[in-house]
Amino acid sequence: QVQLVESGGGLVQAGGSLRLSCAASGRTFSTYAMGWFRQAPGKEREFVAAINWSGFSTYYIDSVKGRCTISRDNAKNTVYLQMNSLKPEDTAVYYCAADLSRGSRGSTNPPSEYPNSWDYWGRGTQVTVSS
After folding, report:
1. Is 90 helix (H, G, I), strand (E, B) or coil?
2. pLDDT for residue 102
3. Closest listed residue to residue 107, CA positions, set 50, 60, 38
């Protein structure tokens, strides 16, 4: 079992920045991939970014490339999503997720962009960007 708790969401004006954090517990954090997804009202959950177990490989959806950075601190069991130049369309509930297979130590497969491939989820943190 892996428990994930997100924090760092809030209300920000367009052009502003936020840093989301996700604290993990329950399994050896440094062995599995982590990801961030988001879900806006009336829309499906959408992949945002992922990072493999070592932190050496990162993946982003095109709409956040150059504006967002995913990182992890394996000593603190925490993954981060730094979001800059925020836009109103970034408004959503942001979820962190853990994948114990793809993108994990010993795996040659990168993390998936499909939510069903991920094993554990946090409860989410709201990000609202005002125009």
Report:
1. helix
2. 87
3. 50
